DNA sequence: TTGCATCCGGTACCTAGGTACAGGCTTACC
DNA sequence: GGTAAGCCTGTACCTAGGTACCGGATGCAA
């Protein structure tokens, strides 16, 4: 009985060895078979699974969401209405679009600050000669992920 | 001798009371005067300062950067070449633009996934009939803030 | 002066996604 | 069989930006 050793999987995917175990704890990776001595022996498709996980992360899904999506893919029947990749992708898409819109507002403000030549946050805020309303700017348009 | 009590400042700015002390520890707020019993008495302009801090945060600056910017605004001479608001705003602007570009790639991919009707991450990855290359998608275009 | 709301400092905890370390066992190769 | 590399579990730590809790002190009004 054979399989990939954890360092091989790590090397093949660029994922840290500790992270592999972390994903296992989080339920993203199935528990692999073990050697007689207790060492993990991964099946080949684990490499694919990790690539999928990383791709989904790059699309902005959290690890919890990725776990749900993988789960939903397994037993397709008896799953919640909005658990499918379709619905999640649509929801995620509108989040990403909202984020883009926020960032465009922010970019516009930064450009204005540069163009106006402001060089002191507090002075600009106190005096109305500065065109940038620092005290009230872009409320609710946080750069941070709002999820 | 008077001034605003911490709860008044908190209420006026929507900032948590603990956060006020946190900002003081981080050097974002000057240490205020105290009552005889040791209670903080804030000057009026602290409210403005907090609004500025929150605005700068919304523009995507970290608290460390905000502290630097406030510092730089105080003693304008003898400061580093790139410490000014101008330079920082320019740098931040290009970061924001890069982030927008990344998100646009991600949005495009999500749209493709929705249009193609994929509903199973792993199946889509294994079979080449799916137009979405989950295993190789948008490498380096993480949604996470790359700073 | 009593009573209650507020504030104090210090410390611990939270999210998200990992990463590192310690001490001991296993595997592989010569 | 020896030995070095690799792997095991468990636990602690990291970033960033806060938030919560505790026991005790203070402020203020009646």
CATH class of the largest domain in chain A: Mainly Alpha
For the termini of chain A, the CA-CA separation is 44 Å
Total strands of chain A: the figure is: 2
* Percent in helix of chain A: 55-70%
Q: Count helical runs of chain A.
A: 6
GO molecular function, one term (chains A, B): DNA-binding transcription factor activity
Organism (chains A, B): Micromonospora endolithica
InterPro entries (chains A, B): DNA-bd_dom_put_sf, MerR-type_HTH_dom, MerR_fam
Keywords (chains A, B): DNA-binding, Repressor, Transcription, Transcription regulation
Ordered list of secondary-structure elements with their pairings:
Two copies of one chain form a homodimer.
Chain A: H1 6-13, H2 17-26, E1 33-34, E2 40-41, H3 45-58, H4 63-74, H5 85-116, H6 121-126
Antiparallel strand pairs in A: 1-2
Chain A binds a DNA duplex (30 and 30 nucleotides) through helix 2.
Structural features, described:
The structure is a homodimer of 147-residue chains. The first copy, chain A, is mainly α and 147 residues long. Chain A has six helices and two strands, in the order H-H-E-E-H-H-H-H. Chain A folds into two domains: 69 residues, Orthogonal Bundle (Multidrug-efflux Transporter Regulator, Chain: A, Domain 2), CATH 1.10.1660.10; 63 residues, no CATH class. Chain A has a two-stranded antiparallel ribbon. In chain A, strand 1 and strand 2 form a beta hairpin. Chains A and B meet through helix 3, helix 4, helix 5 and helix 6 of A and helix 3, helix 4, helix 5 and helix 6 of B. Chain A binds a DNA duplex (30 and 30 nucleotides) through helix 2.
């Amino acid at each position: 009985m054979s399989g990939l050793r954890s360092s091989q999987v790590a090397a093949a995917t660029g994922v840290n060895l500790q992270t592999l175990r972390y994903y296992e704890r989080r339920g993203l990776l199935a528990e692999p078979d073990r050697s007689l001595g207790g060492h993990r022996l991964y099946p080949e498709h684990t490499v694919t699974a990790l690539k999928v996980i990383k791709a989904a992360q790059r699309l902005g899904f959290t690890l919890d969401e990725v776990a749900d999506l993988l789960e939903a893919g397994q037993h397709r029947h008896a799953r919640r209405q909005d658990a499918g990749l379709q619905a999640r992708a649509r929801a995620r898409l509108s989040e990403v679009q909202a984020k883009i819109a926020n960032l465009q507002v922010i970019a516009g403000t930064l450009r204005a600050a540069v163009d106006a030549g402001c060089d002191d946050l507090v002075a600009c805020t106190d005096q109305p000669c500065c065109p940038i309303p620092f005290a009230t700017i872009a409320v609710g348009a946080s750069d941070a992920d709002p999820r």
